[in-house]
From TrEMBL:
<protein>
    <submittedName>
        <fullName>(diamondback moth) hypothetical protein</fullName>
    </submittedName>
</protein>
Amino acid sequence: MTGVQYAITLKISNSSASVAHGPDVGRISVILIDRNTNRTENKLLDDEDKYYKPGDVETRMVAVQGTGFPPISAIVEWKYETNLFNPVTWRLLKSSSIFIEYLKIASLEYNTEITVCPKLHKPVVANLKTMMMPKYCKIRK
């Protein structure tokens, strides 16, 4: 297997639930899954914690070991750590989460692009792996 480059575009939801939850600080990791259920390694989109707020859109280039086929789904995880000195990271009554509207995953090697979303527009909760699939996306332009 060889390395494959992906352009991963992340959109943080601007839904009322996301806005009510507010911004959060953490890191997002992604595992890509192909049609044979082969998985890539777990890749962080950023090396350091990042401040995400509702409506944010960003694209990152990510290199992973190829599985031999383009991805058809992804597992996303929100990595979150409370920092005593940063009140933005304090979540006293509930788990930290992030409302991801979608991930667009494009590959030059495979000449493919898919968009995956969380089921029922649920948030990605800290340290819980969340399956994201194209069929969970509502129609977007």
